[in-house]
C-alpha cells in the first residue's frame, strides 16, 4: 500500500484533530499505518523542536531556523518515514517540507530555490503522494489559536509570534503551491464542521489507496 500523506495548514485550522480522527479510522480498519509530526517525531527531532519553539530564542536567525527544521526532517525521513514506507505502511505526517516553503520561503521570504535544494538534501528527495491543506482565513486561524491558548488547550510557540502580514504571505504561499501541483494537493475549507472535513479527508484518502491497489493488481502477472 505504501503511501506518504502530509497534512498542512495554519495555526487553528484543526489539522491535528483531523490527523487524530484519521488515525482512529485507520486503526478501526486495521491499516498498516504510521502517524508522525514535524518538527519532531524522533528523539533528536523533539530536541530540535524544543529549540525551534522556545519563545526565549528571539535571537534565532532565519537561516538557523530553516536548517533546524531541515535537520529535524532529515532525521524523521531516515529514522521513521523511509523505513515505514519500505515496510508497506501508509505514513501520515503532520507538516512536512511544504511548511518550510510556506513559512520560511513565503513567510520569511528566503530564496525558494535555495530552500528546495536544502529540502532535497534533507529528505533524500522524498516527496508526499498526497498533501491535504486545511485552508482558513488568517484572522479566523489566529483568533481560534488565541482562544485555545486562553482556555489552556494550546500553547503559543515562537512561530506564533509573527505579524499578520507574515501569516497572509504563508497562506498565499500554500495556495500558490496547491495551484501549481493540483494532482498532489487537496485543499479543504477548514471552516466546515469537524466531521464534514473528516469525511472529505477519508473519502479522498480511500480513493487514493484504492487507485494504487488497482494499479498494483494490474501490474501483477
Ligand atoms: P505546530 O506543531 O503547532 O503545527 O507548529 C509548528 C510551527 O512550526 C508552525 O507555526 C509552523 C512552523 N514550521 C515552520 O515554520 N517551518 C517548518 O518547516 C515546519 C515543519 C513548521
Kindly summarize this structure in a few lines.
59% of the residues lie in helices and 12% in strands. It is built from eight helices and five strands.
**What structural category do the secondary elements indicate?**
alpha/beta
Q: What is the fold-level CATH name, i.e. the topology?
A: Rossmann fold
Shape: globular
Name the CATH superfamily assignment.
P-loop containing nucleotide triphosphate hydrolases
User: How is the main sheet built?
Assistant: 5 strands, parallel
Separation of termini? Answer: 18 Å
Radius of gyration: 17 Å
Q: Hetero groups bound?
A: thymidine-5'-phosphate
Task: Tell me which CATH architecture applies here.
Answer: 3-Layer(aba) Sandwich
The unreliable regions are: none
Strand content: 5-15%
Number of strands: 5
Topology as a string of helices (H) and strands (E): EHEHHEHHEHHEH
Structure description:
It is a single chain. With 221 residues, this protein is of the alpha/beta class. The protein has one domain (3-219): 3-Layer(aba) Sandwich (Rossmann fold). Helices cover 59% and strands 12% of the residues. It contains 8 helices and 5 strands. Helix 2 (43-53) packs antiparallel against helix 3. The model has no long low-confidence stretch (mean pLDDT 94). The site of thymidine-5'-phosphate has 10 residues, from helix 4. Residues 11, 38-39, 69, 95, 99-100, 103-104, 159 line the site of thymidine-5'-phosphate (TMP).
